[in-house]
Amino acid sequence: MAAVVKALNAKIRSNPVANYLCSTHFWGPASNFGIPVAAVLDTQKSPELISGQMTGALTIYAFVFMRYALAVTPRNYLLFGCHFVNAGAQLTQGYRYLDWHYWGGKDKAVEKALTAPVAAAAVAK
After folding, report:
1. Of 73, 7, 99, 78, nearest to 36 (Cα)?
2. What InterPro entries does its record include (predicted)?
3. How far apart are CA 36 and CA 79, in angstroms?
4. How far apart are CA 4 and CA 17, in angstroms?
């Protein structure tokens, strides 16, 4: 049985594409893509749910690992792409957080909520 497994492994490793698909160079970033997918989906949620500290930490994390992906040999462009998407999503979330809490986004939302019934009543008349 061990000889069969060894022969199968040698067959897989002889093909460059199959070798790459069976490596951590592929599966690490592929499994890590859950983070940027979640971050992109979170951009559709209310900005009052955003944690500023977590967004800052994830932004730094994304930039550090973008650098790491290019520093390893061989360069891991899939890992770079994963963290590039994550950095973009986290920067978007950071902007939304700052807009909501510090640049008047919350006040605009409250004002809009208060004036919406008045505008609806005016249209109904």
Report:
1. 78
2. MPC
3. 11
4. 21
Instruction: Give yes or no: residues 77 and 65 share one domain.
Output: yes
The C-alpha angle 117, 46, 55, rounded to 5 degrees, equals 155
Ranges of beta strands (E only) in 26-76 are none
pLDDT one-digit tens code per residue, 12-59: 777 777 777 777 778 878 888 888 899 899 999 999 999 999 999 999
Closest listed residue to residue 64, CA positions, set 87, 41, 45: 87
Judge whether 107 and 56 are in contact, CB under 8 Å. no
Residue 102 three-state SS: coil
70 and 116 together in one domain: yes
Q: Are 92 and 44 within 8 A, CB to CB?
A: no
Interatomic CA distance for residues 72 and 119, integer angstroms = 59
Q: Residues 17, 60: one domain?
A: no
Question: 26 exposed, middle or buried (CB, 10 Å; 0-12, 13-18, 19+)?
Answer: middle
| pTM: predicted TM-score of the whole model, two decimal places | 0.74
